[in-house]
Fold this protein.
Amino acid sequence: MATSPTQALPWTPPNTEDIEALPVGKWWDAISAPTPVADRALELLGDRSGAVIQDDTYGKTYWLIAVDTSTARSWRMRGVRILAELADEGTLLGVPPASWRAEHKTYWRIPLGPNRYLTDTHHLVLALRQALDDVLGPEPDGRQLCYRCELPTDEPVIVDIQHGASGAGRTIYACPTHARSYDRDAVTEAAARRRALERGRTR
């Protein structure tokens, strides 16, 4: 179920006029993912997703989860972040009014409701792992250098595979921040779409 069994009615944002920075760890913790990954995860979750905030300014999407969910703290996934209260500092999440929808940059993509509040992390982790594989491809082994910032990243994303005349080629990696800005040509994009369709047919 998307709703916590101990929470008969959902919590609602106190500010009805504007976005408010609220502390995580008080009413809920949160999970963030890049919106393209979240799009696919939401398809996989279906009606098992709780309420969801989408921030189009920064390309992030957030699920609310139960406070101090120990399993979530152990996750390590590309571009996915756990927002929880830290021992030495607070963490804030910008929360829009409950009535805000897609006409705003930050809004409730899935509105709060009696059966739409916290998301079960067991279902969420499975959906996010599958979504990352579908959207970003299999996770590379080990650290890789980002083509853009030229720094090693523990969360490399394959953004291109370049083939040479001899058949040998090279794989181009990016950190999660720069993966979204990689400019691939039309042939590469078409190949990526074809691979995605082939993966879908074989599952």
Q: What stands out?
A: The CA atoms of residues 34 and 135 lie 10 Å apart. The two ends are 26 Å apart (CA to CA). The mean pLDDT is 82. The first strand starts at residue 20 and ends at 23.
